[in-house]
Design goal:
By secondary structure, this protein is an alpha+beta fold. The protein has one domain: GOLD domain (Jelly Rolls, Sandwich). The strands form two sheets. A four-stranded antiparallel beta sheet has the order 1-8-3-6, with no helix packed on it. Strand 4 and strand 5 form a beta hairpin. Belongs to the EMP24/GP25L family. Keywords: Membrane, Signal, Transmembrane, Transmembrane helix. One of its GO terms (cellular component) is membrane. InterPro entries: Emp24-like, GOLD_dom.
Length: 143
Amino acid sequence: MGLLLSLRHSYVMMFVIIGLLLKETEGIRFVIDRDECFSHDVKYEGDTVHVSFVVIKADSPWHYGDEGVDLVVKGPAGEQIQDYRDKTGEKFEFVAHKSGVHKFCFTNKSPYHETIDFDVHVGHFSYFEQHAKDGNDSSINSI
C-alpha cells in the first residue's frame, strides 16, 4: 500500500513540475487571410525560444495545396532572426540575444484562408544561471 501511495505522489509531483515548466508556453489556432503578426515578450537575454507551427487546413473544401505560408521572426530592435518561406509546418528554436518583445509575422499568399496552429515556448533556467554566476557549483570550484 505504501508503494502505491508513493507512486501516486510521484505522478502528482511530475505533473506539477511539468505545469511549472510550461508556464511560459503560448499556443493559438487562428485563421489567416493575408498577413497576421503576433508578439511574445522574452523576459531574459539568453532564453531559448522554441517555435512551431503547422497549416492544418484551407478554408475551401475544393482547395488542397502545399503552398504553405511565410513566417518572419524579428527581435526587439527589429532585427530579423528567422525567415521561412512556403512552409506547411516548421519547428525551430533560437537563443534570444536581447530581452523584449519578439514579433512573429505570417503571410499567406494563397487565395484561400488557412488555419494555423502556432506555439511559442520560452525556456529560462534561472536556478542554473544563478549558480554559474555566483560560483556556487562545487564541481567547478573543485577543479
